[in-house]
Amino acid sequence: MRTRIIVADQSEACFYDLQHRPESLRLVLKLTDPKAHLHDRDFNSDRPGRVFDHAPTIGKRRGATAHHATGGERSPRRHEADLFARQIAAELDQGLRRNEFESIILVAGPPFLGILRHALPHSLTAIVAAEVTKDLVHHSVRAVIDHLPPQPFGLPASGQ
Hints:
29% of the residues lie in helices and 32% in strands. It is an alpha/beta fold.
């Protein structure tokens, strides 16, 4: 079974292919998001956008207009992480359509793993064989191999 392993955080994603043994792990693609290292202030303009609401019948002032700033439900950093997760999902979806793998293992720290899960379409979530809740993107390939779960998806335990 061919497995695609994604080791990611909010700024970088490494796509590995795995066939049969963990030691066969091979890097096939690396994505980076340079905006992930920016500060929130670097994303924002000087002020939030403005919205004008017309209130047709409020008290004596018919047709009064209310002015208010738009709220920032998500921080710019979170928005950028969402976009990067969607980019990862799009790359995985293309690989699945090209029959490059049959299963996926996601490796990411807890915050980004949740964002990544949310970005995956059903066609990809259906083939997620395992998840490793650990930020290993800046670790060696050996460290990634050591954290892979063994038997549940047909891999021999590493070192055997």
